Amino acid sequence: MSAEIICVGTELLLGEILNSNAQFLAQQLALLGIPHYYQSVVGDNPARLQQVMAIAAARSQVLIFTGGLGPTPDDLTTETIADFFGVPLLERADVLRDITEKYAAHDRIMTANNHKQALIPQGADLLPNRTGTAPGMIWQPRPQLLILTFPGVPSEMQTMWHETAVPYLRRQGFGQETIYSRTLRFWGITESALAEKVAPFFELSNPTVAPYAGNGEVRLRVSSKAASQSVAMEAIAPVVEQLQALGGLDCYGADDDTLAVVVGKLLQAAGDTLAVAESCTGGGLGQQLTSVPGSSHYFWGGVISYDNQVKASLLGVDQGDLAQFGAVSAEVAQQMAAGVRSRLGTTWGLSITGIAGPDGGSETKPVGLVYIGLAGSNVPATSARYLFGSNRSRDAVRWMSVSAALDFLRRTLLEGDR
Amino acid sequence: MSAEIICVGTELLLGEILNSNAQFLAQQLALLGIPHYYQSVVGDNPARLQQVMAIAAARSQVLIFTGGLGPTPDDLTTETIADFFGVPLLERADVLRDITEKYAAHDRIMTANNHKQALIPQGADLLPNRTGTAPGMIWQPRPQLLILTFPGVPSEMQTMWHETAVPYLRRQGFGQETIYSRTLRFWGITESALAEKVAPFFELSNPTVAPYAGNGEVRLRVSSKAASQSVAMEAIAPVVEQLQALGGLDCYGADDDTLAVVVGKLLQAAGDTLAVAESCTGGGLGQQLTSVPGSSHYFWGGVISYDNQVKASLLGVDQGDLAQFGAVSAEVAQQMAAGVRSRLGTTWGLSITGIAGPDGGSETKPVGLVYIGLAGSNVPATSARYLFGSNRSRDAVRWMSVSAALDFLRRTLLEGDR
How many residue contacts between A and B have a Cβ separation below 8 Å? Predict the structure, then answer.
């Protein structure tokens, strides 16, 4: 028994979007332990989609479609699948009602086009779409063949997968063997330095350990395949523990942890509060911190001091120092942190000032130069200097600045515990 | 004549990496005007790879492979292709020399494994890999069938594509036609409403018009295939113009435009400046605005007033109004906008306050309720109320809030022109 992923959409053939749906579904199939040997991409073209279906139905028993469920005329997946099996489409009154209600809730008017989205092949079950208007289907058109369809919008597809498809597949007896993985996350160490530290672990066969790197972060994935998740977890646990010990402070978390999540937990545990002052990141640090639900318990807000006048007026940075040292300097970073801390009355003030590029760099202050400032209640303000490299993009420098700031606070909070 | 992309790698089937190679090659084929109807992904498995090859060779005339050219035992693409056509592999002395030299240059020792990378099917030409050790091949194993292989490392593959494959394909007469596209971007209209407005355009055959939607944005892609880019551009121009006219204010831009880019251009053209006050987006609006290089010309900064105390202390929002109307209200949105405008001394103040979820919603103020406030120099502060739907994720509500705020300012700036 194996599954096959079929992504439908001319935009994929034109290279307009990355096929992130295929990656998500591939990961999910691995988690359920469902073998998966082929992926296909085909355009919004009924004849070619039928050809791909014929090939897939002959070699795989679970066909997972994404895309082509929308309201427009080129969304043809549902009718092409029905055609392939010679089954008529029926309009589902409950779906039509659901779409109508969703439009009304957003103060929008439904169009004739949307009626199409209520059509499902006779005999197929609905795969409800709670967050969008295009439902999918679960259908066994013949024995040993199961079809699931999803819209192409990743967030809708993922919700539908988790809420309906996974429970359904488990009820059908899928997911009896499982691949279970944990991912350790590192900041402040290069991939090659970490690889050297943990080299013997790469030789293991169960669990396996593999490194990944990107955007300044390094990850180690520890995976085990076993009859049950608990057996796999048992195989993984001691390896994870040893890797965490080897990683030390550089290992900031695991799995879904982000630096913002980890910092949030540390702040909340300490009963501390935080304010930020941002220059080159323009709000990105606050944005990351508040991406965590419940962050209002410890994050109070801050100042986006993109213009130097704002650094002086709202944060109290000394005009003379701004002129003497420049906006991108240790002195200004520290004053920004201290200023936002005292104005908001928080335990900590965290600041970022740097040159994100592509312009604005100089010989002494190149693109990628960033200062992080930190002010606390009982300690003098400190700062750290980073050189992220002038060959990095503006987005990358800004992302790494936000991460470095969070990591700077994380290490300070952890060291304070000792 | 059409091309097909075949990506080989178990890591793709496990969802460990995104298939960015398929997107790159798809874009490149479109630029060369080479039709491309199918993409396949298959693991490092000779039997299944042969099966995929048989299907592809029967329906496409140019097969482009990525992955499986490395030195490890599971890299099997070259030998599987040779096997499929019953042709022996020959060791190329020049390739072996090149690999040896590359290893020496990095102070590394070549292993026996690397010998494998010097094997090429008899009759095939080398597709040199200047930056890595795994070369690819260009091979016409039979008339009307051309095979190109590339390593899976994106940077190596892309260099090889540009330096060798494109000139080769042009010499073979490919790339005489080109596909040229433009994408119009819309905010504030649903996909189905826009589709109804522009329905007749979907019937066109050259150029073609197709809709896409996601994260609250709708896009129309206008594509033309022609002998040259200038001819394609000519075919597209009048259709783009008509669609823009039909879209009216809902059409905010084209191609790489973002709402932040468009708003930035409008502000700069008017000589206006902007400050922001953000609650539930926590800095995301400033982050978007400053993602545009040169945004310091019009964006001065702002206040992240996540906590209500900060709304009062740094923005001057009335404590009584906060208590009476709540933080998520038209009154507070307007006072936030007016407050940040007067404190920073900018032309405009733009604010966001809302309930991003997943918690914090109520019957009267559900998750997804967001107010945008706007204050200008000559007009009283205004606000708009949005219901993004309580079924949306925190990330989605925050993203749509930022986009709605930018769009609100955009429309105001455009209407001011009249």
Answer: 296
The helix (run of H) or strand (run of E) holding residue A211 is strand A208-214
Cα A303 from Cα A301, distance rounded (Å): 7
Q: Would you identify the CATH topology of the domain A179-254?
A: Alpha-Beta Plaits (3.30.70)
The residue of chain B nearest to residue A131, with distances taken between CA atoms, is B391
Cβ-based neighbours of B248, under 8 Å, separated by 6 or more: none
pLDDT at A110: 76
Do the chains contact at B299 and A282, CB–CB below 8 Å? yes
Inter-chain contact A282–B282, Cβ cutoff 8 Å? no
- Residue A245: which H helix or E strand, with range? helix A229-247
Cα A361 off chain centre by: 31
CA distance B81 to chain A (A): 18
Q: Which residue of A has its CA nearest to B34?
A: A14
Query: Beta-carbon neighbour count of residue A257 at 10 Å?
Result: 14
Report DSSP letters for A109-136, one per residue. Answer: ---GGGGGGGEEETTPEEE--SSSS--E
- Yes or no, beta carbons of B196 and A112 under 8 Å apart: yes
Residues of A in contact with B290 (CB under 8 A): 280-284, 306, 398
Q: What is the pLDDT of residue B417?
A: 46
CATH C-level class of A259-416: alpha beta
Does residue B98 contact residue B110 with C-beta atoms inside 8 Å?
no
- The three-state secondary structure class of A176 is coil
Other CB atoms within 10 A of residue A119 CB: 17
Subunit contact A307:B285, Cβ cutoff 8 A:
no
- Predicted ipTM? 0.78
Q: Is the Cβ pair B37, A113 closer than 8 Å?
A: no
When pLDDT is cut at 50, 70 and 90, the band that residue A417 belongs to is: very low
The highest-level CATH class for domain B3-171 is alpha beta
A388 versus B407: the higher-pLDDT residue is B407
Return the residue of B nearest to A25 by Cα.
B15
Q: Is the pLDDT of residue B204 over 60?
A: yes
Give span(s): CATH 3.40.980.10, chain B. 3-171
Q: Which residues contact B106 (CB under 8 A, 6 or more apart)?
A: none
- Ranges for all domains in chain A classified under CATH 3.90.950.20: 259-416
Where in chain A are all domains bearing CATH 3.30.70.2860?
A: 179-254
| Residue B92 to chain A, least CA–CA distance (Å) | 32
Neighbours of A240 (CB within 10 A): 19
Provide φ and ψ at A71, rounded to 5°.
Answer: -85, -5
Chain A residue whose CA is closest to B221: A11
Tell me the nearest-neighbour CA distance from B26 into chain A, angstroms: 5
In chain B, CATH 3.30.70.2860 sits at 178-254
Contact list, A357 vs chain B (CB under 8 Å) = 293
Contact between chains at B301 and A310 (C-beta distance less than 8 A): yes
Third-level CATH fold of B178-254 = Alpha-Beta Plaits (3.30.70)
